[in-house]
Each structure stands twice: as C-alpha cells, then as structure tokens.
C-alpha cells in the first residue's frame, strides 16, 4: 500500500465534467488535482501531464484534441504516469497496448451509462418504427395529409438481435421483455449459457442477421468489429429490418448502410454514433426520412454523466491508494502498476 499522505498528482482537462469528480478527488487525502486547458495553452498542459501520476481523459474522440490522447507519443513524455481513466465505457482515446507496455493501468466506466444507452436504444427504435420524426416534421411544414400517410409498425412480437451482450446489451434484453420482443444475441466473448442467463437466445452472427427484425449494436470498436457491418452484412439482414447503433462509429459502413436504406432493403435506421462526430450536415444518411439521428447522446444524461464521473474519480482514488480497481481494461498490468504506485514520490 502507498502512503496516503504522500501527494499524488492527478490531471484532467477543462472539458465539461460533472462536478462530483472534483468533489470526490478534493476530499481524498494526498491527491493534488490539476485542471489543465484542453485548448489554448499546450505548453502548460503538456508540462502538467509530464509530471502526472494519474490522468482522467475524455472518451470523446472528436472533442478531445488529438495531442492529449493517451498515445505512445504522449506516454513517452510522461514517465510518472501510472493510472489512466477513460471518462466513459469506451476508450477510443487511449492506446491500451502502449499503456500496458509502459506499466500503466487503464480503467473505463462500463455500466455507468448503461441505463441511459439502453433507454436511448428504444427511443431510436420507436422513433423509426412509429415514424415520430417524420410525423413531427410534416405537422410543422405540411398539410392535407392523413394519419394513414404516417402509418408505422408495432415492435411487439418482433425479433431483436443484439450484437454484444455486455452491461448495455443485457439491459436492452431485459427491457425487450416488457415490449413483447423475442431476443437473440451474438457475443463471441460469452458462452451460450451466459447469454441465456442475460436474457437472450445465443445464435451465430449469420443467424442473427437472417432472423432479426431489428439489429442493434452493443459491441466495442476494435480490430474484430471495425467495418463488421458492411454491404454484405446489410444484404444478409431480413428485408424490411431496422438497424440501430448506440455502439461506436466505424463498426458500420455508413455508405453501405445508405445504399441498403435507399434501395429499400432495410426499413429504417436509428443512429447515435458516426465515423465523424457530429456528422456533416450534408451527410447522405441525414437526408433520408427513414433515418433517426442523434449526436452520440445515448449516454449523455444528467444521471449517466454523474455516474461516470463518480466512477472515474473513485477508481483513480483507489488506484492511487494502491487498490485494484473494478474496471481494469488491462488487468495483466496490475502487478507492475501496483509496484510503480507503491514507489510514487
């Protein structure tokens, strides 16, 4: 265990963060918190990070300036860095292998926004199937149409296929029961019995695409999932199916999805994540009436942001006390990281 009275240097950038983070860290003995500018004074920010023991980093890849990503280049300039916490379930802004090689423990906040993302999944699904946005726009700008012109579809009795059954996917499966959906799931990291325990019937990805009336992504973006939903995957989906993603941009090919929607093979799509966030206003998908789009806000609720900030602060404080945190992304590094933490000065 480390000496609790020994000052540990924790840095974060001045991007928006729920105040509970600073409250928790400020109440923790022996931790000095520095809030550094994300933009406008790179020299000051780099100087702070160079002496940091811990770094809370935004998970928003298109909001965080690239020089403050936890990359091999930044790590090389930060010899004392031993703890990194990503401010979300994702960790696109952290090079985890580089951290592991340098003896740096990395945590995420998986589960902190799970309820919000699961709720948003159904907000998108219902908006697509019941043509909510289309109806709203026609009421504002059009006249002389009938209710039948805006006829939608029930979700009761349909099949939802979940790609990924972690904390968010499990909540989506649980909510599905209340809507009368049948749930199937594909998750190569889980065995069949675990998938059943989490409320879904295990299937192969090919069977999921063939059987699902709704396909919803809840998997991370990594080498195995990047580009997973390409033209072939969309073609393999049931005619008239709906595609949803609250996962990460880059898992689905936006051009291929546009073609599948424009050609009529898919009925609609609900998208919270994009290759570029926010997408440009002239993005082809935004021009389709059967697409409901949001700006990666599935996990952006007051409750979720507080949960994530609280989780991040608690895990960083625990690590700096020499305690193993619950959400280690690279658990194999902990013995080395714990030894480094014990020697902090």
From TrEMBL:
It holds the Pfam family 2-Hacid_dh_C. PROSITE patterns: D_2_HYDROXYACID_DH_2. Keywords: NAD, Oxidoreductase. Residues 123-298 form the D-isomer specific 2-hydroxyacid dehydrogenase NAD-binding domain. It comes from Achromobacter seleniivolatilans. This is Hydroxyacid dehydrogenase. The keyword Oxidoreductase applies. Signal peptide: none annotated. Belongs to the D-isomer specific 2-hydroxyacid dehydrogenase family. The keyword Transcription does not apply. Gene3D superfamilies: NAD(P)-binding Rossmann-like Domain (3.40.50.720).
């Amino acid at each position: 265990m480390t000496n609790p009275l020994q000052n540990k240097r924790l840095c974060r950038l001045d991007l928006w963060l729920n105040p509970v983070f600073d409250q928790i860290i400020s109440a923790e003995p022996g931790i000095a918190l520095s809030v550094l500018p994300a933009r406008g004074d790179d020299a000051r920010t780099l100087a702070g990070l160079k002496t940091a023991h811990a770094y809370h980093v935004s998970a928003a890849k298109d909001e965080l300036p690239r020089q403050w990503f936890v990359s091999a280049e930044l790590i090389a300039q930060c010899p004392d860095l031993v703890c990194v916490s990503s401010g979300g379930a994702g960790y696109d802004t952290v090079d985890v292998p580089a951290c592991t090689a340098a003896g740096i423990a990395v945590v995420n906040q998986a589960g902190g926004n799970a309820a919000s993302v699961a709720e948003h999944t159904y907000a998108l699904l219902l908006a697509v199937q019941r043509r909510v946005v289309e109806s709203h726009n026609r009421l504002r700008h059009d006249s002389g149409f009938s209710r039948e012109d805006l006829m939608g579809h029930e979700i009761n009795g349909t099949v939802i296929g979940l790609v990924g059954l972690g904390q968010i996917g499990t909540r989506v499966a649980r909510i599905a029961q209340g809507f009368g959906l049948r749930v199937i799931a594909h998750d190569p990291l889980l065995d069949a019995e675990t998938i059943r325990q989490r409320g879904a019937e295990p299937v192969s990805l090919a069977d999921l695409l063939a059987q699902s009336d709704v396909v919803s992504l809840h998997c991370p973006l990594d080498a195995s999932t990047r580009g997973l939903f390409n033209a072939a995957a969309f073609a393999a989906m049931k005619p008239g199916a709906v595609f949803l993603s609250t996962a990460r941009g880059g898992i689905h090919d936006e051009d291929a999805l546009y073609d599948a929607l424009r050609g009529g093979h898919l009925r609609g799509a609900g998208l919270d994540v994009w290759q570029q966030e926010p997408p440009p206003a002239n993005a082809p998908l935004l021009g389709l009436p059967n697409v409901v789009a949001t700006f990666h806000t599935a996990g952006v609720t007051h409750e979720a942001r507080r949960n994530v900030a609280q989780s991040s602060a608690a895990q960083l404080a625990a690590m700096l006390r020499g305690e193993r945190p619950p959400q280690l992304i690279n658990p194999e590094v902990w013995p080395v990281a714990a030894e480094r933490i014990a020697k902090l000065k």
